[in-house]
Amino acid sequence: MEIEPWEVWIRSTELHAFVQRYEPWLWPTLQTLHIFGFTLLFGTVGFFDLRALGFAKGIPLQAIHRLIPWGIAGFVGNILLGIVFFSGHPDQYFYNNSFRLKLMFMAVAGINILAFYGTSAFEEAKNLPADASAPLRTKIIAGTSLFAWVAVLVCGRMITFNRPPFFH
Amino acid sequence: MIENDSLFTFVESSDISKVITMNRENLNTAAQLAGIVIGIAATLTVVVGWLGFLQSECEQGTPFLSSVFPCFPPENG
Hints:
A: 8 helices; B: 0% strand
């Protein structure tokens, strides 16, 4: 298969050369950090979602929300790592339905975040005392968030099982 | 040897209510854990099922949503 111009450009970058040169130790190291970043994201955002759904009701949502910046840090770190992975093996990701599905679920999660912070749902959740149930709207947003992030995790794991046949 | 009657003497009603409350909490936790497991399993099924569906559609020559999920040519194609 002929290599597309965008892929030729990525393969000409220093980042691609760096990944290729040090791949044996760099790839597993960055993959480990990628999982660590996801742990930060899921451990904070996922915990927040679970509380909104009715788990651990004794903890006020606002207290859990203070952990969200750690989740954002994990997400930003993972985006940067994802760029490195993509630069190292662009064909493995671009021609991969699992990767495309992963991006779609990330978009769903992003829209869901906008639905939470862009509406009064956030204010309602912020003022929710301990032992109180979240409003239905917040529960729907939390459920969607959990589904989207678990799906992102599953798709990420499935990427290596859906490599294109011309992977090089 | 402790008689059955004496045992009941030591168990106060407040203790019984604590035991009942604990059992309810444990049941609630078990139900929540089951919910998490079912949720993860359902998501896994949806994703893997969808990928399998796309793959089979490509193999049958009837690609589905090929503009988003294209079928890839064989290595020497």
